[in-house]
Each structure stands twice: as C-alpha cells, then as structure tokens.
Amino acid sequence: MSSTSQGARARARIEITAAIKEEARRQLAAEGAAKLSLRGVARRLGMVSSALYRYFPSRDDLLTALIIDAYDSLGASAEAAHSAVADTEPVRRWVAVCEAVRGWALAHPHEYALIYGTPVPGYNAPRTTVPAASRVGLLLIGIARDASHAAPSAAPPLPAELRAEAERLMADIAPDLSPETATALVAAWAQLYGLVGFEVFGQFNRMVEDREPFFRHAATGLARGVGLV
Fold this sequence. Notes:
Elements: H1 3-31, H2 38-45, H3 49-52, H4 59-84, H5 90-107, H6 109-116, H7 130-133, H8 135-150, H9 163-173, H10 179-200, H11 211-226
DNA-binding region: 37-56
Pfam families: TetR_C_33, TetR_N
Protein name: TetR/AcrR family transcriptional regulator
C-alpha cells in the first residue's frame, strides 16, 4: 500500500472517530451517559454497528475516550488561564485556575456531568484516564509548591487523629510539601468541584444570584485554606 493511501486511510479514521465522538456527546446532552449506546450512535451516523465497533469495541471504550477528552479540555483551559498570570502572586494564580474550571464547566455542562456528576452504572474508569484527570490538580499542587518555596505554609494545623492519614496523602500527591498542606489541597480540590457542581447542576438557583464574585471570593478562601498568602 502506498504512503498516499495510508495517509488517506489515517485521515478518514480520524474524521470518523471525531464524528462518532461528536454524536456521542450529542447523546450525552440529550439523554445522559447511562443511555449512551453504540447502536444508537451508529444509527444516527448511518453506519452499521459492526463498522463502529472497529473504532470503539464497546460502549465503555467510547465513554473512556469521551472522559479523557473532557479532562484534557478542562486541563487545557486551566493551564492556559494559569499561563496568562504565571508571573503573579500564588493567590491570583490559584483563583485564575479555579475560575477557568468554572468557566469550562458552565460552557460544557454535559461533559462536566460526565466527569464529575453521577457515576455511569456499570462503568469503571481505567487507569488511562488518570493523566488527563490529574492536570488541574497538578496545577494547584504546583502553585502551593511555589508558594512554599517563598514562605512557610500557613495551612492550618492538623488534629492528632488525622496525622497518619495526612502523611499518607502527602506521600501520594506531594511528598515535598507538608502533611498540613497536602491535606488542605485535597479538601480544597473537593470544595472547588463542589462549588462548580452546585452552579452547573442548579443548586444555587434562588440562592446565589451574583455568582461570579461569589465564586471568586470562595476560591480565594480556598487558597487561604491551603496556606497561600
């Protein structure tokens, strides 16, 4: 087979894969991840199911591809926001990343629901999703690390009963930071996605009206809780 033919086949595969993912995202928006089916995607694209299986052998393979794409898109948005303020103080960098997460989620609510909403019944995410899922967390850890080089962390002290768990967390996610900072980072990470999820899923309706300054204030509070000053 000539290199020209191989190139054409490769381009066709990329285009068909993109079309499959796009239709799957449309189904996510219309019916939710639990109802996603390869047969339904194939029918909408005018393909026979056996042809689609050559691109994604199972529904779970398609879900995994969509999840990785969503995490990578979110991570890229957060990294771009951080790059724009990379030379500023840690709190501003932290808030910029948090605001990018919020902005992405509001622009992509169905994809946000896929990665941070209700788990899809019968689906277990493989380890291949971890690098993409870690991008935002690694940014936040990096900001805390840079701040710790400039000044001692102001993260709150730990109760004695949490010390062993905090040291385990530190060893797992940031062995060069203190147990106090590692614990505060995990809590802040959970609170960040809780804040975003409340807004995306409508929990702030008839409660918080001016949401942008509310979020910025809350994200700044998370930064202080991690010890960024």
